[in-house]
Specification:
This protein is α/β, with parallel strands linked by helices. Helices cover 55% and strands 11% of the residues.
């Protein structure tokens, strides 16, 4: 008896039939595909983790996909196909499209054609009871002829059959769901109208009383500075208090390894031939059953170098390489949307090509999902850098990330505030991710947008104490490209989620709405305002302009400005100092004092982001990796 879908993925419906596995094992050994010792190892692995013996042998590297399919076809006495062009050319597309892509992915079956009153189907899991029951329910008990193909060929054939649908959903899925949730249009019509009214009001105000407009502007800016540093201080205090005990994702909670679910890993890589081997080696180190990993490497059609580099590393059988058709926008979130439609896991995470995640990260994520309430959609792991000591930029970048992921995000989590996700190592409940429309392909900081949208949908995002190490940008031009993209994405996210402010407040609650606006809107605003304020100060210093004379300004504005200048800057610098404590990176303490220099660089990136927001809103500035001379330790 073959094993049902639930048994394959969650192992909830009883134990596999050992006689079936023994027969498959005998065929593998007798055919010279594996040795007796390899069969013994595979059976021991199966006893520990569960699963199908043939697939275990494949994922352990004892046999390849083709040999496995040949054995299955021999075992079940079914025909075997491997010629994908033939299958694509001869498939009945109308028949194949009677199943959705999600159904194809779940049941690993594609209706091929009807021949001599028999429904011929392509399947990578022959004689699966649930698959057969599903087909009989959909095709009125029509006689079925199964033909065995690999899981990779299931993906290739279904990609060819459903390509137009997949491309359209990857690009327009969120926009079609709700145009107001997408950054496809930078400003909505009401936002354009409000912006015009504000600009007209400023122009009229300057004509009537320029001094009053200046004082009002300065007061608003100083109020934003004050609110920002107080907000970050409060969140940091809560984050440091909560971090040792909250969201740990204790793998001891995963008591039965046989119950670990299938876990999908999406890797969207473009022009990453230099570093893709790093991630492949890191994933091979995962403390997670190899046969329960579903790794999809997403590559663009014109990226032959990364494809060849990945193949040279001989990734395990649990990896599938999916080539995306050339289409616009050419962004990471569009690639992720493409890949998520082929995901087979209960949970899903994403990694960048240069990532080195902790080996137990997936188990910690599973533990977090199982020990928290059902309204959690995602758990974010910490990000940090393996080349932090390379130069000034990498040290400042490490301080920034250490503060963000080790202090700020745990504080947001503890206070129940929206968490803007990082671009990697966020672990999702796959069905919930699909329900909210996945990623916005037009938003270049799709991760932050997704975190805010999840909060608006009533879901929670938590953190787990696990780290993924990345390569910090060590080159200034490369850093500016990455920074401007991030800031532009924050601007997009702020505009998208403020198209209907009153509705957002009603859905999220006032506390969450204020919190995300201070973080998502306040961050780029302060980067842009910093040079303006410094420029006004220098202008007064060198010209003595009376309109900027402090003695003529309201006392409350002067007091607020003094608090921000002295206390506010000290607090922000101290927060960067505190950020070194959780990881004991004490050598970075002197660099925290150089934060004002780093802030000026942030402002350069912010102005570039503002220019691109107007002229190239969805343009994805590629960040080059593999520039560091530091090698990650694994």
């Amino acid at each position: 008896m073959a094993i049902s879908y639930e048994q394959r993925t969650h192992f909830q419906l009883g134990e596999p039939d050992e006689r079936t596995y023994r027969r498959v094992g005998d065929i593998l050994v007798n055919g010279g595909h594996i040795s007796e010792s390899q069969l013994a190892d595979a059976l021991h692995y199966q006893e520990q983790f569960g699963g199908r013996l043939g697939w275990i042998c494949a994922t352990l590297g004892y046999i390849n996909r083709l040999d496995l399919c040949r054995v299955l076809s021999e075992h079940f006495e079914l025909p075997y196909y491997h010629d994908v062009p033939y299958m694509v050319a001869n498939i009945d597309n109308n028949l194949a499209k009677l199943l959705t892509l999600e159904e194809v992915t779940r049941y690993q079956v594609i209706p091929f054609r009807i021949d001599r009153d028999k429904l011929e189907v392509l399947t990578s899991e022959p004689e699966d009871p649930e698959m057969l029951a599903f087909l009989r329910s959909r095709f009125a008990n029509q006689p079925i002829q199964q033909m065995v193909i690999t899981d990779l060929d299931i993906m290739r054939v279904s990609d060819a059959v459903h390509r137009d649908f997949i491309v359209d959903k990857s690009i327009n899925g969120l926009y079609n769901r709700n145009p107001d949730e997408s950054a496809r249009n930078v400003l909505s019509r009401p936002q354009i109208g409000i912006l015009i009214l504000i600009l007209m009001g400023i122009v009229v105000g300057l004509a009537i009383n320029a001094y009053a407009i200046l004082i009002g502007f300065l007061f608003l800016v100083q109020a934003l500075y004050f609110a920002s540093f107080v907000y970050k201080y409060i969140i940091t205090v809560w984050g440091l208090k909560a971090r040792p005990k909250h969201g740990s994702g204790n793998i001891a909670d995963v008591k039965e390894p046989r119950n670990l679910p299938v876990y999908t890993i999406l890797i969207a890589a473009y022009k990453e031939a230099k570093v893709i081997s790093t991630l492949i080696k890191a994933v091979k180190r995962f403390d997670y059953p190899e046969d329960k990993l579903d790794v999809i490497l997403l590559l663009e059609e014109d990226d032959k170098e990364t494809l060849e580099a990945a193949r040279r590393e001989r990734p395990p059988t649990s990896w599938r390489i999916l080539t995306l058709p050339d289409s616009q926008p050419k962004t990471k979130p569009k690639a992720l949307n493409y890949g998520v439609q082929f995901a087979r896991g209960e949970y899903l995470t994403i990694y960048d090509a240069e990532d080195v995640p902790d080996a137990d990260q997936l188990k910690k994520a599973v533990a977090a999902f199982r020990t928290h309430s059902d309204d959690y959609i995602c758990f974010q792991a910490s990000l940090n850098y393996f080349n932090r000591d390379e130069n000034f930029l990498t040290k400042m970048f490490t301080l920034e990330y250490s503060y963000w992921f080790d202090c700020l995000l745990p504080g947001l989590d503890s206070l129940g505030l929206p968490i803007p996700l990082g671009g990697t190592s966020n672990h999702f409940d796959l069905q919930k991710l699909r329900k909210i429309g996945a990623w916005d392909p037009f938003n270049v900081t799709e991760d932050a947008d997704l975190g805010i949208r999840a909060a608006a949908e009533g879901y929670k995002v938590g953190v787990i104490q696990s780290t993924t190490y990345e390569e910090a940008n060590s080159k200034l031009r490369n850093w500016l490209r990455q920074r401007s993209r991030w800031v532009k994405g924050y601007m997009q996210t702020f505009l998208v989620h403020n198209r209907h402010p009153l509705t957002a407040v009603k859905r999220m609650g006032l506390k969450q709405w204020v919190g995300y606006n201070l973080l998502i809107g306040g961050t780029p605003a302060l980067f842009i305002l910093n040079p303006v304020m410094w420029g006004l100060f220098l202008y007064y210093l060198f010209t003595g302009a009376q309109i900027l004379d402090p003695s003529s300004m309201p006392a409350i504005l002067l007091y607020l400005s003094a608090i921000n200048l002295i206390i506010g800057n000290m607090v922000i610098v101290c927060l960067n100092l505190i950020a070194v404590l959780p990881r004991k990176n004490y050598r970075l303490i002197p660099h925290a004092l150089l934060s004002p220099i780093y802030w000026l660089l942030q402002s350069v990136g912010a102005y570039k982001a503002l220019w691109q927001l107007i002229w190239r809103p969805s343009y994805w500035e590629k960040t080059d990796h593999g520039l560091s001379s530091f090698i990650p330790v694994m």
